[in-house]
Amino acid sequence: MNTKDIVYVALFAALTAALGLFPPLTLPAVGVPITAQSMGVMLAGALAGSKRGGYALLLFVILVAIGLPLLAGGRGGFGIFLGPSGGFILSWPIAAFLIGWLFERHQGETPFALSLLYIALGGVGVVYLIGVPWVAFSAELTFVQAFTGSAGFIPGDIVKVVVAALIARGVRRAYPGL
User: Fold this and answer.
1) CA-CA distance, 10 to 90, in Å (whole number)?
2) Please, how many CA atoms are within 13 Å of residue 14, restricted to the half-sphere of its CB?
3) Domains (range + CATH), the chain
């Protein structure tokens, strides 16, 4: 890993932490807050690529695990991973990696519709695939109850996917060698 890679990893870990400054809104059904931080995951993958985006979110998760209050609402510590949010947060490095990997398959500019699809697959699909079963396990709910409770996230996630795709498109146009 060279200096440029390290800078991107640190930058996107910091961006994800900064997105935690927006106040969280906790859904009572599952006890998981709606935050802007999942957009950091989407942007890390779309802009930094698979390796750097995945490492950025892995760094972020490690910093949270050792106790830094980087999550929305000033939360941090290993105990976070044992609660309902744990699966969602642990999925972030995988989601960023997948988004980056999908974007790396294209030469030149990625069509907007594919950008939306790639970001949605990683930033929503992977996150829910790991997060919802964890909610069911940690909150002692059925999978259907956990999924139904998590459905409240979908409108906000769709907005975040569109915003992340627009930002990624603009940044990639401005910096084609990114």
Assistant:
1) 18
2) 6
3) 3-174 (1.10.1760.20)
Which residues 6+ apart lie within 8 Å of 38 measured at CB?
Answer: 88, 92, 123, 127, 157, 160
Tell me the sheet residues that pair with 49: none
- Nearest partner of 119 among 42, 174, 20, judged by Cα: 42
Confidence of residue 23 (pLDDT cuts 50, 70, 90): confident
Amino acid at 71: L
Q: Give per-residue pLDDT as tens, 49-96.
A: 999 999 999 999 999 999 999 998 889 999 999 999 999 999 999 999
Q: 62: Cβ–Cβ under 8 A, 6 or more apart, which residues?
A: none
| Mean pLDDT, rounded, of the chain | 92
